[in-house]
Amino acid sequence: MNNTVTLVIATRNQGKLKEISDLLKDYPVDIKSLDDFGPIPEVVEDGDTFEENAYKKASFTARVLGFPALADDSGLVVAALEGAPGVHSARWAGENATDQDKCRKLLSELEGRQDRRAAFECVISIAVPGGPALTYEGRCEGEITTAPSGENGFGYDPVFYYAPFKKTFAEISREQKSQVSHRGKALMEVQAEFDQVLTWIERHMPVPERFACHGSDNDC
Q: Could you give the domains of the chain?
């Protein structure tokens, strides 16, 4: 496939956009984000699973903008909290909570608990305007620290300890994180199959309708 494909990453998060753009930089895709377009309605992420929410975002964005779209839904699943915050990870500490607020709430909920096992989970959906979608998944297991550490990353990264590196996600580089993170693993699955993904997009994108013009030259 030789033509460049416009692919909209359904996010305004610059960290996610950079991570995804880096992994797809060698492919014939013109990466856009929601910030490249005018205001569009917000998707209500009311699914019960990461897969439902990822598909809702990708499908909605593709239909509204007319381009294939990639969306992810991801979050932190904590064993001692029965899977919370899960699909509510982004807003668990409140609608306008900062990353520091999120980490603070999580540490408060786990205060005094011995079981600090946790996992980041990610589902990526790639959809076309007509509705079909491809799905990819990734998971990274770790544990929650007792205090934040590190300045990199975003979200819960400062309190997510990854044993093989003996560091939190906020203490490693973006390149290191991309190799082992939930989103990185899911994106590497996408990357490994991206030639087939581009072919799939080409086959499933709607063909523009052509209309014959029967009026005068000035009308056509």
A: 5-204 (3.90.950.10)
